Amino acid sequence: MYSLLHTHIERRIHLSQKERALLDQCFTPKKIRKHKFLLQEGDVCRHIAFVNSGCLRAYTVDHRGEEHIIQFAIEDWWISDLNSFLTGSAATYNIDAVQDSEVLLLERASRKTLLESVPKMERFFRLLQEANYVSSHQRINDSLSASAEERYLAFIKTYPLLVEQIPQSQIASYLGITPQSLSRIRKELSHKR
Amino acid sequence: MYSLLHTHIERRIHLSQKERALLDQCFTPKKIRKHKFLLQEGDVCRHIAFVNSGCLRAYTVDHRGEEHIIQFAIEDWWISDLNSFLTGSAATYNIDAVQDSEVLLLERASRKTLLESVPKMERFFRLLQEANYVSSHQRINDSLSASAEERYLAFIKTYPLLVEQIPQSQIASYLGITPQSLSRIRKELSHKR
DNA sequence: CGGAATCTTGAAAGTGTTCAAATCAAGTGG
DNA sequence: CCACTTGATTTGAACACTTTCAAGATTCCG
Question: Would you list the DSSP string of B3-65?
């Protein structure tokens, strides 16, 4: 249950047996069935979630009712509305399960306890956040400089498994185009080979 | 010289007199004249820069030679090619001064020393990085859900000073549109009032 | 099997780009 | 201070890409 999390953390810092036990106590496992919500816009995001299995997504709904997927989180990744989690403000993201999933939840109070009792975890979260920052800048760069087709090809490379498992309309939403456009792009690509 | 940095850090953590002195030793002040580079694509990013005054930008150049501005950094912000800084790989970003600027540079080795001698700084950088992550996700969301005009209006709100001081073509590059399009958007907006 | 999503396709409309030319602005050297 | 060069901005017209709207095909699942 916790082994993926242990590996994930110990890729960045080393934990003692005791610290590992302490860590486990801070997390709450939760199963989330496909299409069920972990967080809804307007609520306060009470926890950050480490994905053990399955896949979740964070998305916003614009003034016209269109969904825009900010992030997918497959296993070994984290997902949350960080701003809401940190400040206690109302969430602007919805988070739901794209597939049946299993997550480990870390509440604000638990994270505080954890950070105080295992100071090394400050370092872990710093490193994690740095990596997140790098990848979101990568995504910003793609949205500025790559065409829809290039972004789709990049998506396939980054999430080869997801491409098979989620509706195309969600990939389109992540890429910032309509499902119709993605359908046409795929048609184009299939002609090319 | 260091007072802005002190305020910046002490907004998040508290430092003793001694720690503050230690901190100062880790940073190297540097003046950068307008259009001069702090980092060029292909080099290794040796430091992260805290902006004391002026403004810098990080941008990529695509295969067609077009510039895409990933980030502006005005005073009280940081700028770097974080991926290159962390991993030692070749930078994919160029960083140059949009105006005459003054920065405080923190080298990798200095940061390491600092993090080891003042463990609280782990916490500082974690908090900083979390804030960065939140704002880059905000930008991703804008690029997915806002029109060019909306993004421009949001830009004006976020960087009211910059709008006066930098060429429009750079704002356009940041927004992901051509200078011509921005010119037309501005014309539209001026008609509206 | 039947109903509900999802995906595909076509045609028209929209948004932004491209290319080219004109205008405007700022800085330099005489 | 003016003429000149250079870069930035504006504008127009044609073009390209993406969306929108609508309809038909396909897939999924109870």
Answer: HHHHHHHHTTS---HHHHHHHHHHEEEEEE-TT-EEE-TTSB--EEEEEEESEEEEEEE-TTS
- Using a 7 Å cut-off to protein CB atoms, list the covered nucleotides of chain C: 5-11, 15-20
Q: Nearest CB to B134: which of A82, A141, A145?
A: A82
pTM (predicted TM-score): 0.93
Choose among B83, B169, B54, B187: nearest CA to A138: B83
- The answer to whether B60 and B94 are in contact (CB under 8 A) is yes
Sort A164 into a burial class: Cβ within 10 Å, 0-12 / 13-18 / 19+: exposed
Q: In the predicted model, what is the mean pLDDT of residues A21-47?
A: 94
Average pLDDT over residues B123-141: 96
- Which domains are delineated in chain A? 3-145 (2.60.120.10)
Please tell me the predicted confidence (pLDDT) of residue B86.
97
> Rounded to whole angstroms, what are the CA distances from A133 to A77, A116, B41, B46, B181?
13, 24, 19, 18, 30
Sign, CA dihedral A157-A158-A162-A167, equals negative
Higher pLDDT, B8 or B34: B8
pLDDT band (50, 70, 90) for residue B41: very high
Give dist(CA B78, CA B81) in Å, integer. 10
Question: CA A152, A156, A157 angle in degrees (round to 5)?
Answer: 120
Mean pLDDT of B166-193: 90
**Spatial distance from the CA of B181 to the C1' of D15 (Å):** 15
Question: Mean pLDDT across the stretch B92-111?
Answer: 94
Q: Using CA atoms, how far apart are residues A48 and A107, in angstroms rounded to an integer?
A: 7
Closest-CA residue in chain A for B139? A140
Identify the closest residue of chain A to B70 by CA–CA distance. A141
Query: Which residues in chain B are contacts of A176 at CB distance < 8 A?
Result: 143-144
